[in-house]
Specification:
This protein is α/β, with parallel strands linked by helices. The protein is 35% helix and 26% strand. The protein has a 15-stranded mixed sheet that branches. A hairpin with a 4-residue loop joins β26 and β27. The longest helix has 25 residues.
């Protein structure tokens, strides 16, 4: 019982003495923290004696940090130069060294240094740092753009941005950094408290980013970046987003062979880059692409949704597989897929969408057809395979538009649905009279232009193991315009 009482008192001392002092230090109130600790030693002797060593260590570190405050306040000096110039002075002062790194925006490195101290201080510092990290990260977003940011009055930043007259490229970079901040700290109280300010800043960025015509401009010098698969220490969503934010225009992000897992929804607002997989690369997570001039190569999405929204244009996919949920293409323009596989594909009000040697297969969830079209006027499919255990194709549109063929073209492809070739959906339901079976394919030709189509059921090597190659001498085999099989050309390995 005596031991338990002593432990309880010690925990109380940590919470009432060390905790507030460390919080003051993170708020850059070093003098106040020193005075607070000295007063606690005098006014609460019995309580403070339980953690005397920790108090003395913390006082030493705070005094050390205070003594080099002039260097820290010097915007021209970075953390490494300060630590190097004061190496002897900072020896064994891990908390002070960590605070130097923290004050200069090197948050990750600060955590590592805090952990080197003894006693209960690393735990208290790390716990406090996690609370204060979103605020510190937010602060450095703006200081990196030479915008003065007052942590006590964050709303003033809106007027500062309006006054800054930042160039278009820098405004776009600011937008990307803020969106990254929102993804990295989605549940933080700081983000919730400042959601309105962030919303206003993003509106300002959107209004001021001009559409620059880069058609005749020479590309910038590009530096490719390579990232590793997911490990317990490296969450892929952070490394992916950080890598893309650092990628130069027209550069390539290379994903090494392995599995990449992403927490929550990953939004990619970037433009003018490529993502290429080396070997077997699997992605797990939901993706939304907002950018333009993007190329995806050799990527397999094992789980999650993939969405191209209205901001997406000039996007190409080569040798990509979407093995889980349907891919969604909404209001996008100039999107091409070559040698790709889909478990359901939904296209809505998109223009100039093309598919070559693609396999559209039965959706695992949701959709009632391998290919669903909602008011999509311009698409072309060639050398492909469309197969579903329900309907091959579903057309969603007003009845008056059913007969408007527009520029919907399918050629040199195999199409088959176990319940019917094509279904017309009006008012979110399908009736028997709106299902076009394979005996009446002529009726569908006023809706979709069809050339050299094979209306037969395909025979796959092994659908249970997702080996979707066509068996020799079955429908679609060697039937494409280039003499190869209809659908995605898959490596048997």
């Amino acid at each position: 019982q005596e031991r338990d009482k002593l432990l309880e008192k010690t925990q109380k001392a940590k919470a009432e003495i060390l905790g507030p002092a460390v919080l003051m230090a993170f708020d850059n109130k070093i003098s106040e923290a020193i005075l607070f600790l000295e007063n606690q030693k005098q006014e609460h002797g019995d309580l403070s004696r339980l953690i005397t060593d920790e108090i003395d260590i913390l006082l030493k570190n705070l005094q050390t940090f205070k003594n080099i405050d002039g260097d820290i306040q010097n915007a021209g000096k970075d953390a490494d130069s300060i630590l190097s110039e004061n190496k002897a002075f900072l020896e064994n002062s891990h908390m002070a060294s960590g605070l130097v790194l923290w004050s200069k925006g090197k948050i990750k490195e600060a955590y590592e240094i805090f952990a080197k101290s003894s006693g209960c201080l690393p735990e208290i510092f790390n716990r406090t740092a996690k609370i204060k990290e979103p605020e510190q990260a937010f602060f450095f977003i703006f200081t990196s753009h030479n915008i003065t940011f007052n942590k006590k009055e964050p709303e003033i930043i809106v007027s500062k941005i309006l006054e800054s007259k930042m160039p278009v490229e820098e405004i776009n970079r600011l937008r990307i950094e803020i969106e990254f901040f929102q993804q990295k700290y989605p549940n933080s109280q700081y983000l919730k408290d400042n959601a309105g300010i962030l919303s206003e800043i993003l509106k300002i960025c959107s209004r001021n980013v001009e559409k620059v015509d880069t058609k005749d401009k020479a590309p910038n010098v590009s530096d490719d970046i390579c990232i590793e698969p997911t490990t317990d220490q490296t969450p892929s969503n952070l490394s992916l987003f950080e890598a893309l934010s650092k990628l130069k225009k027209n550069a390539k992000l290379v994903l090494k062979e392995g599995s990449y897992t992403f927490g929550g929804k990953v939004i990619l607002p970037f433009s003018d880059f490529s993502i290429m997989g080396l070997g077997a690369v699997e992605l797990n997570g939901d993706f939304t692409v907002n950018g333009s001039n993007i190329r995806f190569q050799n990527i397999s999405q094992k789980t999650g949704n993939f969405v191209l929204n209205k901001h997406s244009q000039n996007i190409s996919f080569e040798n990509c597989r979407f093995n889980d949920r349907e891919i969604t293409i909404v209001n996008s323009k100039n999107v091409s897929f070559t040698n790709c596989l889909f478990r359901g594909c939904y296209i809505e009000e998109a223009k100039k969408i093309s598919f070559g040697h693609c396999s559209f297969l039965s959706p695992k969830y949701g959709l009632e057809a391998a290919l669903s079209l909602n008011r999509s006027e311009e698409f072309e499919i060639i050398d492909s395979l469309i197969y579903s255990e329900t309907f091959a194709i579903l057309l969603k549109c007003d009845k008056k538009n059913f007969s408007k063929k527009r520029q919907r073209i399918i050629s040199q492809s195999l199409i088959f649905g176990e319940k019917g070739f094509l279904a017309l959906q009006d008012e979110n339901k399908i009736t028997e009279r709106e299902v076009i079976d394979f005996a009446k394919t002529d009726k569908s030709k006023r809706m979709i232009t069809q050339k050299d189509i094979i209306y037969s059921s395909p025979a796959f090597f092994n659908s249970s193991t997702e080996d979707w190659r066509l068996i020799k001498n079955t429908p679609g085999y060697n039937a494409a315009s280039d003499g190869k099989d209809c659908g995605m050309l898959q490596d048997p390995k």
